[in-house]
Amino acid sequence: MTHAPSPAPIQSELLNQATGGAIVHGYFTRQGGVSDGIYRGLNVGLGSNDNRERVQENRRRVASWFALPLERLATVHQVHSPDVVVVDADYDGSRPAADALVTATPGIALGVLAADCGPILFADPEMSVIGAAHAGWKGALTGVLENTIDAMEKLGARREAIVACLGPSISRRSYEVGPEFVDRFVSQNKAYDQYFTASPKAGHAMFDLPALTVDRLRAAGVRAESLGLCTYPDSERFFSYRRTTHRQEPDYGRQISAIAIREI
């Protein structure tokens, strides 16, 4: 198996300042893994056609960065839903169909995968409750962000103490959509028109998913920021579904963003 440098994730200044080291997080790039070819690097996508042994090794490296065994890296089978699962000390490694996870249990890393969609990490440092959500356009529109916050509150979090950060995701300049896509949003809320600007292609628009995501987080009552990193143009650091589609490649990898409460 190919040797590669250990993964070195990107971090949120907001999360770091708020949590003071009691909660650790990372937005992992594709660097520091063992996959090769179109999956080169740290592909953690069990749903990809990459060699499963390499994917598991990549996931093990992510868990090790948190000083945890692979079995304590919790992820879900993402289906672009608004659904959230609670993870506790009895976590058995299952991957239920959902798009967000929350926990108040130390020593478990909650991870969400993405390759253009938005990975959002949440923390209430006062009550030691964390969350992770995968929000593409459908999840963001149907409430996965708000549902994650609600689920954290049920574990004891206080909304006003929660901080959240959107990691690397596709930006407005790389996200062209058709008129039916715009209609879907504006028919739900006319104010959503602000997230679309004219495209060079007649009848199309450029969609600002990161702005929608951060605005919905703030409207839900939490402090939120975005790393401001676009996955599409940066092939050295990020996998991108849309870039893969435009290049007519047969498949694509996924990067992971994860968060954990430190064990005392």
Topology:
Blueprint: H1 13-19, E1 23-27, H2 52-65, E2 73-74, E3 84-86, E4 100-103, E5 109-114, E6 118-124, E7 129-135, H3 137-142, H4 144-154, E8 163-166, E9 176-177, H5 179-188, E10 196-198, E11 205-207, H6 209-219, E12 223-226, H7 241-247, E13 255-261
Parallel strand pairs: 2-5, 3-4, 8-12
Antiparallel strand pairs: 1-13, 4-7, 5-13, 6-7, 6-8, 9-11, 10-11
Structural description of this entry:
The protein is an alpha+beta fold and 264 residues long. The chain is built from seven helices and 13 strands. A six-stranded mixed sheet has the order 3-4-7-6-8-12, with helices on both faces. The chain has a four-stranded mixed sheet with strand order 1-13-5-2. Strands 9-11-10 form a three-stranded antiparallel sheet. The chain is globular.
- Into how many domains do the coordinates divide? 1
- What sequence of helices (H) and strands (E) makes up the elements? HEHEEEEEEHHEEHEEHEHE
Work out the helix count: 7
Low-confidence blocks of residues: none
CATH C-level name? Alpha Beta
CATH architecture: 4-Layer Sandwich
Alpha carbon gyration radius: 18 Å
What fold name goes in the CATH topology slot?
Answer: CNF1/YfiH-like putative cysteine hydrolases
Multimeric status of the protein: single chain
Shape: globular
- As laid out across the biggest beta sheet, the strand order is 3-4-7-6-8-12
Structural class based on helices, strands and sheet pairing:
alpha+beta
Helix content: 25-40%
Q: How many E strands?
A: 13
Average pLDDT rating: 96
Strand content: 15-25%
